[in-house]
Structure formats: C-alpha cells, structure tokens
Amino acid sequence: ETGVTQTPRHLVMGMTNKKSLKCEQHLGHNAMYWYKQSAKKPLELMFVYNFKEQTENNSVPSRFSPECPNSSHLFLHLHTLQPEDSALYLCASSQGAGTNTYEQYFGPGTRLTVT
Amino acid sequence: GQQVMQIPQYQHVQEGEDFTTYCNSSTTLSNIQWYKQRPGGHPVFLIQLVKSGEVKKQKRLTFQFGEAKKNSSLHITATQTTDVGTYFCAGGMLNSGNTPLVFGKGTRLSVIA
User: Fold this and answer.
1) What average pLDDT does range A4-27 have in this prediction?
2) Would you call A76 exposed, middle or buried from its count of C-beta atoms within 10 A (0-12, 13-18, 19+)?
3) Strand, helix or coil at A47?
4) Could you tell me if A60 lies within 8 Å of chain B, comparing CB atoms?
5) Counting beta carbons within 10 angstroms of the beta carbon of residue B110, is it exposed (0 to 12), middle (13 to 18) or buried (19 or more)?
6) Among B43, B88, B98, beta carbon nearest to A97
7) In this complex, is the C-beta atom of A30 within 8 Å of any C-beta atom belonging to chain B?
8) Contact present, A27 and A4 (Cβ < 8 Å)
9) Which of A107, B24, B66, B75 could form a disulfide with B62 if both were Cys (CB 3.0 to 4.6 A apart)?
10) pLDDT tens digits along B30-65
C-alpha cells in the first residue's frame, strides 16, 4: 500500500536535536492525523487536521509541533524530546473528520528512538 | 475522556481454534470500525458497522454491533497463522464534532501452529 507515505522510517535523535517527520497522502483525503504508538498506550491520538485546520490537540507537549501546509502533507516537528518519547509515530488520513466518521488509512510509521 | 474498552488484551490459540475479541463503550456509538495490525506493520482497516444489531462477515471473520450500539465483537473461525496480529476496535462518538475515532487498546492474537 502506498496511499500514505512517511519519512523517515527510522530516526535516532538526541534530546537536544531538532528533527521533522513527514507524511504525505495520495488518496485525496481532507483529514490527517498523528498517532503515537507505544507499549503503554497502543494508539494515542496526538493531532487532527481537517481541511488544513487543526481541530484536535490531545494535550500534547509543546516539544511536538504539527504543521499542515495543505491537505496532502503533514509534518511533525520535534525538539528537545525525552527518552519516553521513543515510539512508533503513525500518520493517518481519512476522507473527512467528524460525526460522519470514515475509515482511516495509516502510513507505515516512523520508529523514533530518543537517546 | 471517552473510552473504548477492549478485551482480552492477549489471546493465544492453537491453529484451528476460534478467537473472539470484545469491544465496549460506556456511551452510544455512531459506528464501530475494526483494524488489524500485523507484527511490525501498521493498522489496516477491516470493516465498519453502523446499524444497531448489524452483522457482517468477511470469510472466516464475523463482526457484530450490539443492539444498543455500545458494544461490538470480532469472531474468527478456525484461526490460521496468517491471522496473527493485533486487532483494534475504534468507536465513532456521537456529538463528536471534529473528534475522530476512539481506539481501543487492542487484542494481540498469537496462533500456535
């Protein structure tokens, strides 16, 4: 499946580094999501964008900064992360977001390790 | 916040045995979705149920949505090694505004050949 792509697939960074995760969807969807997946919380929603507007921010620390320049691209900017931020970061997209929920299509994820 | 509870957390079965995972919400759902994540992979959409009491089948998989639209189940008949993975339910919340699906914690299925 190549509908949702994520880069890089693996990332190792120090706590003082700044890095960005990229997600691109080729499905013509209007909503995009960032999830964090770890052993403690299998699928933890971080951010939701619907028609490029951020509609959800689930109390995510400010060291995670999302950016959605258009409906096809989503970034997650990372800075001064902590070791407990090590996890699989999944991007997803759907036709829309809201009460008429649509299925979500996930990218392969970025495996992040913070040293 | 709103939660969707899923049990069991883990299930180990012999190949050929049946498997069921259950999903429960304290509030009425607008719909329920099921996803499968293979080891090392990402969640993949399986199915969506919308109507009260709805039952859908995909080969050996049977999905049910409760009459009250608060619970759901996924049943696999005669498991195979290809069924290995984590199965997530995700509930669509009523009056959610732009709040998307709420995922359960998943049931990890192991199949012993």
Assistant:
1) 96
2) buried
3) strand
4) no
5) middle
6) B98
7) no
8) yes
9) B75
10) 999 999 999 999 999 999 999 999 999 999 999 999
Cα A91 to Cα A66: distance, rounded to the nearest angstrom: 11
Mean pLDDT of the region A9-32: 95
Nearest alpha-carbon partner for A41 in B72, B10, B103, B84 = B103
Mean pLDDT over each residue of chain B, to the nearest integer: 93
| Cβ–Cβ under 8 Å, residues B44 and B35 | yes
Distance from CA of A40 to the nearest CA of B (A): 9
Whole-number Å distance between alpha carbons of A108 and A104: 13
d(CA A109, CA B12): 26
Cα nearest neighbour of A38 on chain B: B105
- Partners of residue B45 in chain A, C-beta under 8 Å: 103-105
In one-letter notation, the amino acid at residue B32 is I
pLDDT at residue B95 above 70? no
Q: Which of B91, B95, B40 is nearest to A104 (CA)?
A: B91
Q: CB neighbours of A114 closer than 8 A, spacing ≥ 6?
A: A13, A14, A15, A81, A82, A83, A84, A85, A86
Helix (H) or strand (E) holding A34: strand A31-37
Strand bridging mode B55-58 / A4-7 = unpaired
**pLDDT > 80? residue B8:** yes
Q: Which helix (H) or strand (E) holds A27?
A: none
Cα angle vertex B59, ends B54, B61, to 5°?
55
Quote the DSSP letter at residue B5. E
